[in-house]
Amino acid sequence: KEEQSPFEGIGGQETLSRLVDTFYIHVKNHPELSPIFPEDLTETARKQKQFLTQFLGGPPLYTEEHGHPRLRARHMPFPITPSRASAWLSCMKLAMDEVGLEGPLREHIFDRLTFTAHHMVNTPEE
Ligand code: HEM
After folding, report:
1. How far is the CA of 35 from the centre of ligand 1 (A)?
2. What is the number of the ligand 1 atom nearest to the C-alpha of 36?
């Protein structure tokens, strides 16, 4: 049998969707993050679901609709400090806890997100 992707391993679209919705509840409530995000996170969450689906080896939903992710470039309009990167990761950690994502697969995904979050930093600490 083919090795399953992390996307399939976590439970596919259903789990990913709960993860992202839970994540943005924490973002919305985070004093350092909420000011740089739009008031209405519906579209942000929709794009993040598309992106993470492909990031985790599922179908390339983000690229089909928006083209190459160019994530660092797309984040340039927002001041992403090291402390905002940590805050983003802490919201993701809480969301992973709440959807019950555990074990080696969780660690693998979190490590990749940690790398990507640090790569988004574009502003020194205030
Ligand atoms: C968009 C912040 C890290 C994926 C955004 C937006 C903000 C933001 C403010 C714009 C929201 C909107 O206008 O709808 C941050 C901060 C991060 C971070 C503070 C801390 C390091 C990441 C990481 C990923 C990611 C690690 C991927 C794993 C995305 C995607 C979008 C996005 C896919 C939508 C891009 C689009 O408009 O097409 N982020 N982000 N972000 N972010 Fe992040």
Report:
1. 13
2. 9
